[in-house]
């Protein structure tokens, strides 16, 4: 489901500086004006055009129910989490970014991946939900 995986994530997961099932992770929403650059966008502070709107807090929502599992049948490592919902929200987003949110220093809140919704998605005083793929958020084969 991931549209792009940031190169900083590839490095930091291999060095153990990002641990998907123990670090705090968040999902933020961005507008159509955001253009991901997998080489130069490395941390939270590199993200521009974050969504503003009723029911949305800057920085996004925490991921809950995070799991990292092995799929021995398909020879995959699978990262997944519960769907994310902003309730009673009025907002418009074109994409979502997952990032490590637990360090206090924004330069080490490394970006993980960007999901492009292809078209703007909106909510009007209702729920805005990201439903992750049944096969997981990210798979490593």
What does it look like?
By secondary structure, this protein is mainly beta. The protein has one domain (4-130). Helix content is 6%, strand content 43%. It has 1 helix and 8 strands, in the order βαβββββββ. The protein has one helix spanning 7-15; strands spanning 4-5, 25-30, 61-62, 67-71, 76-80, 84-100, 111-130, 138-140. The strands form 2 sheets. Strands 1-7-6-2-3 form a 5-stranded antiparallel β-sheet. A 3-stranded antiparallel β-sheet has the order 4-5-8, with no helix packed on it. A hairpin with a 4-residue loop joins strand 4 (67-71) and strand 5. The radius of gyration is 15 Å and the shape is globular. The model has no long low-confidence stretch (mean pLDDT 95).
